C-alpha cells in the first residue's frame, strides 16, 4: 500500500511540474523606478519613473523547478538629482536591456511562484552628459554607454500564460569616470507567454 501511495504521489508531482511549459517565449511590459546613487556629498538623488517593453524566452526544467529566462527589453530610464544649491538636473536615457533571470519555483496546479537572480547588461541608445566638478571648475562629461549589474526578484506564472514579476537591481558600473555614479531601482512587469 505504501508503494502505491508513493508512486501516486510521484506521478502527481510530475504531472503538476509538466504543466509549466519547458520551452516558451512571450512579451512583457512594465514600469521601472530608477534612482541615481552617488558618493558626492552635495548631491541628493531623486527617483524617476520609466517604462520598459520587450521579448523574453523561457527554458524550464521540470521536477527540480529551475528555469532560465533571457530577455531583450527597450528601457526608458529617467534619473534626476538635486545639488547643495537646490539646483536640479535630469537625465533621460534609453537603453537596450538584456537581463537573464535564473529562476527557481514550484508549480502547484495552475500557479508557479518563483524567485529570481538576474545579472544584466545595458547599452545606452542616448548620448547623456552630466556636470562634473573638478577643482571648482564644472565641466560636462559624457556618461558611459555600458552598464551592468545584478538584481533579485520574485514573481508568479499563472496558467502558464501570464507572468507578474518584481525585481530590485543594483548597477555595478560607475557611469561617470572617476566618480561613484550608479543607478539602481525597482522594476515591475506583466508578461504574456505564448
How does this structure look, described?
By secondary structure, the protein is mainly β. The chain has one domain: Porin (Beta Barrel), CATH 2.40.160.20. The chain has one helix and eleven strands, in the order αβββββββββββ. The strands form two sheets. Strands 1-3-4-5-6-9-10-11 form an eight-stranded antiparallel beta barrel.
Question: Would you summarize the structure shown here?
Answer:
By secondary structure, the chain is mainly beta.
Q: SSE order in H/E notation?
A: HEEEEEEEEEEE
At the fold tier of CATH, the topology name is: Porin
Give a count of the beta strands, DSSP E runs of length 2 or more.
11
Q: Give the spatial strand order of the biggest sheet.
A: 1-3-4-5-6-9-10-11
The level of helicity is under 10%
Mean pLDDT: 82
Nearest-angstrom radius of gyration? 21 Å
- Count of domain modules: 1
Query: What fraction of residues sit in β-strands?
Result: over 45%
Assigned CATH class: Mainly Beta
CATH-scheme architecture: Beta Barrel
Number of contiguous helices: 1
Biggest sheet features:
8 strands, antiparallel, barrel
SS-based class: mainly beta
Tell me the span between the first and last alpha carbons: 41 Å
Low-confidence parts: 8-19
Q: Tell me, briefly, the overall form.
A: elongated
Amino acid at each position: 500500500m505504501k508503494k502505491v501511495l508513493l508512486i501516486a504521489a510521484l506521478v502527481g508531482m510530475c504531472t503538476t511540474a509538466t504543466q509549466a511549459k519547458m520551452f516558451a517565449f512571450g512579451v512583457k511590459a512594465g514600469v521601472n523606478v530608477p534612482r541615481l546613487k552617488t558618493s558626492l556629498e552635495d548631491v541628493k538623488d531623486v527617483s524617476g519613473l520609466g517604462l520598459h517593453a520587450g521579448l523574453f524566452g523561457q527554458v524550464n526544467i521540470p521536477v527540480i523547478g529551475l528555469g532560465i529566462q533571457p530577455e531583450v527589453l527597450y528601457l526608458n530610464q529617467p534619473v534626476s538629482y538635486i545639488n547643495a544649491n537646490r539646483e536640479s538636473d535630469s537625465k533621460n536615457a534609453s537603453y537596450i536591456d538584456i537581463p537573464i533571470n535564473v529562476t527557481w519555483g514550484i508549480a502547484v496546479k495552475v500557479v508557479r511562484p518563483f524567485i529570481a537572480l538576474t545579472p544584466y547588461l545595458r547599452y545606452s541608445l542616448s548620448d547623456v552628459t552630466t556636470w562634473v566638478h573638478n577643482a571648482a571648475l564644472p565641466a560636462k562629461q559624457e556618461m558611459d554607454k555600458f552598464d551592468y549589474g545584478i538584481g533579485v526578484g520574485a514573481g508568479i506564472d499563472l496558467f502558464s500564460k501570464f507572468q507578474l514579476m518584481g525585481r530590485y537591481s543594483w548597477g555595478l558600473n560607475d557611469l561617470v569616470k572617476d566618480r561613484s555614479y550608479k543607478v539602481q531601482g525597482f522594476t515591475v512587469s506583466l508578461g504574456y507567454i505564448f
